User: Fold Delta-aminolevulinic acid dehydratase from Ulvibacter litoralis.
Amino acid sequence: MYPLRRNRRLRQSDAIRSLVRETIITPNDFIVPLFVTEGKGIKEEIASMPNYYRYSLDLLAVEAKELWSLGLKSVLLFVKVSDSLKDNSGTEALNVDGLMQRAIKTVKNAVPEMLVMTDVALDPYSIYGHDGIVSGGKILNDDSSAVLAEMALSHAKAGADIVAPSDMMDGRIFEMRTLLEDEGFYDTGIMSYSAKYASAFYGPFRDALDSAPVDIQDIPKDKQTYQMDYANRDEAIRETLMDIEEGADIVMVKPGLCYLDIVRDIKNAVDVPVAVYQVSGEYAMLKAAAERGWLNHDAVMMEQVTAIKRAGASMMASYFAKDVVKLIS
Ligand code: PBG
Assistant:
């Protein structure tokens, strides 16, 4: 008696494995998150994100050019706002000459073909570190959505190709889409963080932008009233289908690795591209383990990004984008 089928035949050599490989990583898979700060000549490393930096606008331009030369054609911008400009209504977020608005123009001037995506949420602008307006111990939904729509419009006016609302307010995609259409921005895309979980993996990101929720009495100390409970699966589908109905062009699952079941569920349920955000804590974990010699950095990194794509992601925002592209080129 012989085994009827011998699957190992197709694993015998690198040549045969390459031939039957189902998932290939290329530079086209990546969106590069970039952190921007005020000043000049600044490239400061983020303490909890080794080898990841905040750039002032002059060095943001240099970085954008380098990314383009590596074949990385999309960036996702985040800004670190000084405390003096923070309030509870997102005033600075709408400033036509604010840091985000200038960052968009800087990247577009440096590399006109670069796809520029922008984070739309109030947390970097909020004295409370919340994604929306806080009142009576709550994050106000509709008032926040209205400001977020104005924020998206402001980014579009500055030249953003795609706005990426990461706030999880109900109905904000509809508000945004309606305002963009009303104002003639028909071609501005919306990449919705549609299934965004209340995750402890965002810690290093909040260090990078100094945007963590504050610990003040009567102010919610976490984001659980708007971001999703990580115990839930059906809810992710509901959120995502609603965002598509409301006008999202691309939907996103966030974080990445712990949520690949959700990615596959959503991939099977929708007919728009699905993005994944491999978040700051996922990056920090691997960097820390690799620094100690406990994990092989490059091997684990490739395994992770391949798993994200295999699960159904058409694209991923990843802090590893440059490392990966350098490794595979
Ligand atoms: C802001 C925002 C966060 C991230 C992206 N946009 C943090 C949060 O929701 O608290 C997290 C990204 C990361 O951890 O890499 N709304």
Q: What stands out?
A: The pocket of PBG is lined by residues 119, 121, 123, 131, 166-167, 202, 205-206, 223, 279-280 (CB under 6 Å). The radius of gyration is 20 Å. The chain has one domain: 24-328.
